Predict the 3D structure of the following.
Amino acid sequence: MKGNSYPIKNGNLQKLLTNLILRIMPYNSLDNPYSEKSDLSHGAGCSCGPCSAKKKAAVNTLPDTEESIVNRFVETAIVKSMFGGNDMNRRRFISAVGESTFKAALATALPMGLLQSCVNDKKKQVENGGATTKSVSKLEKTKLNIGFVPITCATPIIMSKPMGFYEKYGLDVDVIKTAGWAVARDKSLNKEYDASHMLTPMPLAMTMGAGSIASPYIMPAVENINGQAICLHLKHKDKRDPKQWKGFKFGVPFEYSMHNFLLRYYVAEFGLDPDKDIQIRVVPPPEMVANLRAGNLDGYLSPDPFNQRAVYENVGFLHMLTKDIWEGHPCCAFACSEDFAKTNPNTYAALFSAIIDATQYSSKHENRAAIAEAISPKNYLNQPPSVVAQVLTGKYADGLGNVKDAPDRIGFDPFPWHSMGVWILTQMKRWGYVKKDINYKAIAEQVYLATDCANKMKELGYEAPGTTYKKHYIMGKEFDPNKPEEYVDSFAIKAN
Amino acid sequence: MSKERIQTITLSLVILFVSFVVGEIVTNTGNASTKELTEYEKLMGLGEPQAHVPGPSEVLKLAVKELSNPFYDNGSNDKGIGTQLFYSILRVMAGYFLAVLIAIPLGFLTGMSPIFYNALQPYIQVLKPISPLAWMPLALFVIKDSILSSVFVIFICSIWPILINTAFGVMSVKKDWLNVSRTLEMGTLETAFKVILPAALPTIFTGLRISMGISWLVIVAAEMLVGGTGIGYYVWNEWNNLDLTSVVFSIFMIGIVGMGLDLLIAQASKYFMYQE
């Protein structure tokens, strides 16, 4: 019985268990109950010769995890009781039918694994002061690779590493910096990443097979809300009215991104057709500032810290924050393949808990300065801490000589509203990324695991919304998730 | 030492000195402003060093710092320059030797049979000019592993020069030599290994040298695209932070390692040179 969780890392626990076996417990309880050769009869403190000799041996062959010790006790208790505590009968019976036959027969009659995990769960529940932590039992996999693109949206995913949120749930996670979203997508599809930081429209697109092969993806949690900005080159200081932007070259981080959809929405509201009047280019976020400086772009709607970095480098200014387009819009997400969640349910649950915990932690303003400090180094964002702090705290220089204060510049809220998914799908339809008819709600509900997220939030003691659909207001215009088709048709400017 | 050699060395040193001085003069140091700053100026980062093109002394300082601890490991995304170069060289070697293993025998066969040579020509000519990076999306999709994909990209870019040069070398072995071997009643295999191979080796080595150069050029771009580890990723990561000092430093390191790899093959080829 070799469990793979609860490794006994610290020497004290090992010593304690050794003492326990030598002094209190009958060592026999740790012997293999299915074997006719082992003796389960001698009780605690038995000082007969073989007993003390075996006790010492038992310590050497101690099951290596706390959980497997518990498992062995459960097995022994059940087997013992079957023979009414008569060890001679047990040994005679087993030697007649054979160890493996007996074990197999017992396994078909009794759900041994379930009983063991029940006891283990109960034990942990007691240890954790009554909180249910089902997720901690039996992690299928503890070593995980999670991809991220170095932007502040990924804050919860990144900070969970230096600030110990993954560790808290028994996971050893490597967060791996990725050059852009196309690579993040391909590495996820290749299973090099177990889970990844993505943009909220990506799992929807991947599930439908838009822009990649169709592969069912799930998005259990949103990372951040708001937190993006439209940044323009300093030479356009006087062109603050989008109507003057005809012919501009804009950068967005990815086609299937909120950035692309919000920029298109914004300019379209001012009468510009994003496919004809401006040029939208896909530029990986880290390359935005360099492109803006080189005059390759007139501006971009991109994730921070690259908006603030452009200001910091005296290259651009912040035209507006995206929270003023849609207050509370989702941006980046935590996503993984449906396959990963199904084959590793406990690991997935633990990871999910870590992410929700971290997201809630980052939503509190008092933690933001410490987070900025933790994620700025070269290993993570590789940015000046002051730039990251300006994004996270919302006290920032706008590049035009003003210090602004917008505490809600970026927010963190894990709840993946189905209505947000439907909105994103309407925009994919509007701009022709998806030509066929879409069953909006079905896809949103398949990919955005709002109910699971709500349950997880409640389990961890956070408040969760009671519904998964609500009306959103984008630049004052109402979006009703119950009427997606009508919403798409209501726009004058759209593809085709 | 001959007079000419002394002059060469002196001139080399003068060039180094002049470029160092000119470099120092034309670049600014990007030093932090020391005057009293308003809050806005502080947020604009005037209190901290600005991104700038570094002078030679600054690059030198960084080089000393980085090279004194080349294998540090601050987590999966921040490793020392030595580790990064090691990964890149490893990938280049893997792809390169795979290409050598396939291209030399194939080139040999192609060169020995004019029919085979002419039949393959159009395909080679089409495949040769494709930028190796254009293969990357396809490789990622098919191979489903980013490291193997970069190895594949190296493989595909180094295979053509070796193939073509081997075929060319084999084809241009002097007819007289082949006739002599026939007079001596040598078998096909014996002719191939005792006459054609030694005669074609210098040309094959030219191909090997060209391929090594290309591989080293390509790995940097490939790693910038895929990320993770390697010198290309290092450059990309520093570019993210607009840390040009590190970028310039890594440019020099790429040059030095590239030169080393080239010298290695040049040295090896000396053993196989012959005088007619």
Observations:
- Chain B has a mean pLDDT of 85.
- The interface with chain A takes residues 39-40, 42-45, 48, 50-51, 74-78, 137, 140-141, 144-146, 224-228, 236-242 of chain B (CB under 8 Å).
- The longest helix of chain B spans residues 188-226.
- Chain B has eleven helices and no strands.
